[in-house]
């Protein structure tokens, strides 16, 4: 059994073990076990369905990227920072657009942070201090299964001695698995997050609201929640895609941040997104430290410009604004709206990924890669921005994303200079 | 036929199979729709039946099952089936509306497409 760091979800659990020979693990949740387990792989690099060498596939990929007018380089949430860095540099060189999985996930939160900032904290602080935890539109038991035990519900810490020291609330439109571990479940109508947060802001300020209910929640219940929030010593809202993917999107998060700012006049509260993929934070942080923006970055003029309305992957595809696409460690053909996928079918697509997926089915160039955290190492950001170095447990025939992208960058530079 | 609001989201089975998208297990994990018990009965459904979900953005046939959702709300796991019907307008944010899209659900005899058929590729 070797010590490992799990590369599935944003928890990036650094206390797990796995034995590649027996395929057995310790401390891994069901999702982590599925991640480490051996499964079908893309066997060889391919160009138009024909098996080729890594060098030939990379050559073809570079040819596509260099001759495209506006290539879209997308994905990045399931690889390491070192690979993402080469990806950003590559996008700049080919004057393309860099976008990453957050643009269909937590990016509305980024827009809110640009407006309001974020009163945040680490998972360690939550574990040690939080006596009130609200999961809002997030479902940790199905998306981040060990979050409750390691940090937020059952976790014991410095000031939190046992589960009873912590009040747990789940706010959601449906009774999720996570609702069952909460002290209180508040069921809201879809699309009413903004209105409910506004009501809580008013009530926390001591103002009255005229309506008897907001978004399906009786006023008394909201007043009670506002009171409980004010009387907590250290509270946290962990929000999920229920907030960012429904009506209001970035404005929902912005309103929630304002609620937290208000609560901080009385006590200590933080708010934090439940980031999904193990390094989706890196997919935003790396371009942020390289070129200043997190996603939706266009380099077509030779300098970076940020505009999600124009340069996010879905918008680019809906407007048929890109004429080639590189997809790294992601599966937009499965996760984008139908109409966006239609354009992917019409342009050359290059894929770098360990596993065959729906994007493989429409890719012209397919380059298999090593699985980070099992066959390749590198740095990643946990959901709260803590950097961890994921381990390589076993040698493999596959090149790492880092090596593939570095090679691509070198050849692009040669071609552009020559 | 009933009018519904459609939401999509993660499930454990979707997560467990997300790196095996061309497998039967993934197909099973994402090609269904959870319906409130009362609505399920109103549609005359039984286990194993299929429904057609329609919105202004598209339509899809999925398996129907009873789930912990309120009346008038249906849940489809995130993935290619949900993405046939969710809203692709992003209101300038870049983010499609994956949750809270109005549409209809009706019983159907049509079969559920495989992920390949859904994508329209060989
Ligand atoms: S909670 Fe997330 S990081 Fe931890 S073992 Fe499970 S999948 Fe891996």
From TrEMBL, chain A:
GO CC, sorted alphabetically, is:
membrane
Arranged from A to Z, the UniProt key words for this protein are: Oxidoreductase
Q: List, alphabetically, the SUPFAM superfamilies matched.
A: Formate dehydrogenase/DMSO reductase, domains 1-3
Which Enzyme Commission number(s) are on file for it?
1.2.99.5
Q: Spell out the molecular function terms from Gene Ontology.
A: formylmethanofuran dehydrogenase activity; NADH dehydrogenase activity
Residues covered by the Molybdopterin oxidoreductase domain: 41-398
Q: Which GO terms describe its biological process?
A: methanogenesis; respiratory electron transport chain
EC class? oxidoreductase
Going by the entry's taxonomy, the superkingdom of the source organism is recorded as Archaea
Q: What is this protein called?
A: Formylmethanofuran dehydrogenase, subunit B
TrEMBL record, chain B:
Question: What is the protein named?
Answer: Formylmethanofuran dehydrogenase, subunit D
Native organism is Geoglobus ahangari
Q: Cross-referenced SUPFAM superfamilies, in alphabetical order?
A: ADC-like
- GO MF annotation, one: oxidoreductase activity
Entry keyword set: Oxidoreductase
Please name the Pfam families in this protein's record. Molydop_binding
Keyword Oxidoreductase: yes or no?
yes
UniProt keyword annotation of Oxidoreductase present: yes
The EC designation for this entry is 1.2.99.5
Indicate the segments forming the Molybdopterin dinucleotide-binding domain, all copies: 6-101
